[in-house]
Design goal:
By secondary structure, the chain is mostly helical. The longest helix is centred in the first third of the chain and has 15 residues. The chain is flat, with a radius of gyration of 20 Å. Bound molecules: zinc ion. The site of zinc ion has 4 residues, from loops. Zinc ion binds next to loops.
Length: 90
């Protein structure tokens, strides 16, 4: 029997709704719990947000990727800088 994509999507929606009902100190109404399913962390202040946006620095994931590439093939690929990544903040 084939499980429809809609059923899977609804299953995960309900699963996350149950899991995240205590987010934000558990003060969420039923409508806000639905919002939290799709937006678990709505803040993008300078503490939470992307460091490229706020400080012009690489993200931790990009730094790790640079180190990984440098260790695999030293000298054949130049390390990426801030401007090499597509700016998705706009
Ligand atoms: Zn924040």
């Amino acid at each position: 029997m084939k499980i429809s994509k809609r059923a899977i999507r609804r299953h995960h929606y309900e699963r996350l709704k149950k899991k995240r009902q205590n987010y934000w100190r558990g003060i969420l109404s039923a409508e806000r719990v639905g919002f939290v399913v799709n937006t678990p962390h709505p803040c993008s202040c300078y503490l939470c947000g992307n460091p490229r946006k706020h400080f012009g620095e690489l993200t931790i994931q990009e730094i790790r990727q640079n180190k990984k590439e440098a260790s695999q093939c030293a000298g054949c690929l130049p390390l990426r800088k801030v401007g090499d990544y597509q700016d998705v903040t706009q």
